[in-house]
Each structure stands twice: as C-alpha cells, then as structure tokens.
Amino acid sequence: MDPLLTAAGDRLAAYHDRLAQLVAVDSGSRQVDGLRAAADLVQTWCLAAGMAVEREPVTDPAGTPLGDVLIARRRGAGSRRILLAGHLDTVFPPGTAAARPFRIHDGRAYGPGVSDDKGGLLAGLAAVEVLAALNLDGYGELVLVCTPDEEIGSPGSRPLLRTLGAEADVALCLECARDNGDLVSARKGVADLEVTLRGRAAHAGIEPERGANALLAAARLTVALDQLNGRWPGVTVNVGLLEAGGRPNVVADHARMLVDLRAWHTGEYEAALAEIRRLVAAPSVSGVRGELAVHAPTPPWEPGEGGHRLTELAAKVGAGIGVPVSHTATGGCADANLLAEAGAAVLDGLGPIGGADHSPHEWLDLDSVVPRVALLAGLVDLVAAVGVECHVPPHERMTTA
After folding, report:
1. Which of 123, 175, 202, 236 lies 20 to 30 angstroms, CA to CA, from 47?
2. Would strands 81-87 and 141-147 be described as parallel, antiparallel, or unpaired?
3. What is the DSSP letter of 140?
4. pLDDT value of residue 388
5. E-strand stretches of 76-215
6. Where, by residue number, is the active site (predicted)?
7. 389 is catalytic
8. Active site residue: 26, 68, 129, 150, which one?
C-alpha cells in the first residue's frame, strides 16, 4: 500500500474521534462562545501535532466580536509557504448539536457542520500529521488557518486572509469535495446588496396623491432586477427579501430589499453591479429615493495558470495513489475567493467527500477520508517540490492584498 495511504489510515481513528468532538460543539456564525470552544479543541490537536499556534480575535465592521482566527504553523526544510484554509463556523442555530447529534450510519457521518467544514478542516490537520509521520518536510512553512466567520462572508477575517494569501505561494482550501468527488477549481463572485427606498406617507383613501409609494417602487425594482438575469453569461440576480409599508390604508413610505448578485468573471460582476446602482439611484416612482449598500463583496475566483497547474498536480498525485481526481466550478463563494484575490494560486474542495450542506441531512463519506487525506498530503509534498506559478507574483501583491 502507498505510504501516504498507510499513514492516513493510521490517523483514521483519531479523525473519527475528533470529528465527533468538534461536531458536538455548536459553532454557528456569531456564536462566539461555541466558536472559541471549537478553536480550543483544534488548538489542542495542532499543538499535539507539533505546530505553533496563535489566535487573533476578529470583529465585524460594527465592532461586534465574531470569535478567533486560529493560525497553526509548522516549519519545513524548503522555501515555499503552503496555506491550508478551513473554517470553524456553521449555519446552524444554538442547540442544533444536541438536537441532531453526531452519528454514523452506513459509512456516513451526520451532524451540524460535519461536511461544511469540520470534516474538511480536520482533514487538513490529518494531512499535516501524515507529512510529519513520513518526514516529508520539503515545504518552507505549512500554515493551517481556521476562521470563525466564513459562512457570513468573513467580514472579520478578510484582512488576515488577504495577508496570509499574499504571503503564500499556494492556498489549498479545505471545503469538502462535491458529492460526486469533484475538487473545486473556480467560484463565482458574490455581493450581498441591501436596497433602501424612502418615499412619503399619505392617507391611502383621502389623499393618496400626496404620497410616494416606496412599496410600488420596490415591486417595480424587483422586476427590473430579475430582468438582469441572462444579460451577461452566468450572472444571477435574486431578490431574496422585500419588506415594505406597515398598514393597508397608508401609502408606504419605506421599503427594504436584500439582493444576491453572483458572477463568474470580474468584468461581468462589475458591470452588473454598476447597472444595479443605476436602477436603485433612479426609482420608477416619483418622490421615492433609493440607496444601495454593498455588504461583503467577494470577487470571482478565476483560477488562472496557477490554479490550472494545481489541478494537474492533484491529478498526478491521485493517479499515483489510485484516487481519481476531477474538478468543477461552483456558484457558491468561499474564502478561496479572497485568497485568490490576494495573489495565491488556489485549489478548493480538498476535504473528504460530503453533501447536503446547510441542511439537516448534511453528511460526510467516511470511506473517503483516508484517500482524500492522502491526496492532500501528497499534493502539499509535490507542490513543495516543484512549485506553482502564483496568481499574482509576490512583488505585485502589496496593492492587491
């Protein structure tokens, strides 16, 4: 049996035990106590693996604590810095871990965050341990970063992720592989948009003409935004929330909309955002004013030569250990987008195979753990040996990061 697979198999019992412990902790985004408890567990395991650990508390733009970013480092004998990136937070509310506890059935593990991203994060740690067990230290530094806020767009972790991405040669992201085993080689960019429309209230029966109906403006704007779908290839615009008015006999003087914008390519992303700004600034109802706030804008991750090279190297490692490797692009964004923006060559989906993320049926294929940990460890070792062209050369990264 290949040494990578053997060493990964030796870590399987510990992986199962750690996964059960980590999934048992409620660590939804903004659940700071749970997130710090999860980070404490990971810190203990990283220290036992011989890694140096640091913690950095992060807050959202309003100053509200979000938890700690955990950064674990292991020095090697080479020169290349390789970043392994995962996240501690889930989308589930407090009490989910008790209501839906970790369990194993027919070779699959179930529980909140078992695939997204606790199983992937622990695969990254297991890969570090595999490399240490085999004395494969050709990298300059191996850095494992675990963030507490990925599910809400990493508002607190962004500056640190961009710094780490600017310092890294390669970022290998630990979101789990797609349910068919695909790695992820590109992600759409996303912008969360908040539209505020301010009109003028009036009695709807006596003098409606004195009002300016913000609800009507919002309804028309919803239609206009929906019509942007298909204008640019791969661009989607979705109005997910519309709140307006308060009483049926009052002309609505306010409306609020939450809109999701996604695009594959930077030019189309920026063009669609510019058109949305134009539509919001010129409401279709006289007397209504519109304002647009853009929250956590995340640019598209377009892989470039470095990303293509990483998929080739992953396939080469997979062929050597009998693990088929394929890859795909996905419409969901992740911290991979921010790391690519900072300049690192990026490949994602390097955790075990999982599926049904963000649902009560979320699962992780336990039979995939050993081969995927071996694949990740082998990819780290190969990248350390041969190198990969970065998305943005290091000397050009100061303005990007």
Report:
1. 175
2. parallel
3. S
4. 84
5. 81-87, 103-105, 108-110, 141-147, 170-173, 176-177, 183-187, 189-198
6. 89, 150 (proton acceptor)
7. no
8. 150
The residue with tokens 């989906």 is 349
The answer to whether 8 touches 380, Cβ cutoff 8 Å, is: no
| From 68, 89, 357, 381, the catalytic residue | 89
Per-residue pLDDT tens digits for 312-368? 999 999 999 999 999 999 999 999 999 999 999 999 999 999 999 999 999 999 999
pLDDT at 190: 96
- DSSP-derived 3-state class of residue 28: strand
Q: Crossing angle, helix 158-167 and helix 335-342, to 10 degrees? A: 50
**Beta-bridge partners for 194:** 258, 293
Q: What structural domains does the chain harbor?
A: 3-187+300-400 (3.40.630.10), 189-298 (3.30.70.360)
Q: Is 89 a catalytic residue?
A: yes
For position 393, what pLDDT does the model report? 56
Measured CA to CA, the distance from residue 373 to residue 19 in angstroms comes to 14
